[in-house]
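Sample A.
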Amino acid sequence: MADKHILAEQDYQAGLKYKEIAEKYEVSLNTVKSWKQRHGWNRDRGAPSSKGMHTKRPGAPPGNQNAKGNRGGSAPKGNSNAVTHGLFAKYLPDETREILQQLETRSPLDMLWDSIVIQHAAIIRAQQLMYVRDQQDTTTTLIEEKNGDSSYSQAWEVQQAWDKHAAFLQAQSRAMATLQSLIKRYEEMCRQGLADNEQQLRIQKLKGEVALLDQKVAKDDDKPIEIVITRKGERP
């Protein structure tokens, strides 16, 4: 039997709404939206004919100015007829509004996953940025320089290896706590039935990577990380 998301896509192309698809396959509304985003559903393929469908009366209501300044064809530059939130259009830059429009197609679970991946990437990158080579690895930085008529002075900041390492451990601890909190929220949403099999597998894989990262930091182990994830019912 085909996967649920394949059958659901066929129903979507046939004109079924998100809610109807969710009820038919006994999944959450967010899961259906996630399927659409991940698998690139397109209603143009196999969309039903307009016969028998409800149609709206053509033309804008009296007083509507959506097409103001438009003499026909595509909307003129500066036209805001496609802006959903007037507040956003007024105060947010174009790049930010574009991001918001893309986020409208993301489910809450997918947006939470994005936050988890960004946090995890930042932790891994910090391993290189904050690396302390040995006890002699000090950093000297010029922080102030004064040049007067008859005097000249400089102020330097010296970070000893143990200070840099202690700062790294504190930053790592806070970052890992944030990551673990995000993972916990993700797992709670999975238990509520808001995730499909693929979304559940990816959090299991990430938890294994985080556990091994903690182990490598604690033991200073340079061996490569290997993660093996199996689907439920399969043997590794």
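Sample B.
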Amino acid sequence: MQPITGGPCTIQANDMLQHVWLLCEKGDMDMAHKLMIKIGLIDLYPNMMTYFAMIKGFNLLLDTIAYNVVIRLLCEKGDMDMAHKLMIKIGLIDLYPDMMTYFAMIKGFCNAGRLEEACELFQAMNLGKGFI
């Protein structure tokens, strides 16, 4: 990731995107939106997690498909613990993991060398525990 320089300050692009996420978590959507605009002006592009934070921050309803996008991204980055927490959260908000959720999680666990957890999830899926 290329550093961004401007005057006496040098920051990483990921730092800016993380700042957007934190502003959204705080509920400061006006400032988060302004920062997103500035990010675009310096030719940076927000990642999926940044967009997800903005959607959440504006209290837009998310569906299983939106959660699947984030889960897949987390799995691809190897953050299986966060992906698993998000999968559990889907069930707590009256949504259900679907085939794509399970596919991303099982593949992610396998890629991370966590085969036992992948098998447990596969068995849970086959037993119909939350799968639609």
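B remarks: Residues 3-57 form one domain. Residues 95 and 110 are 25 Å apart (CA to CA).
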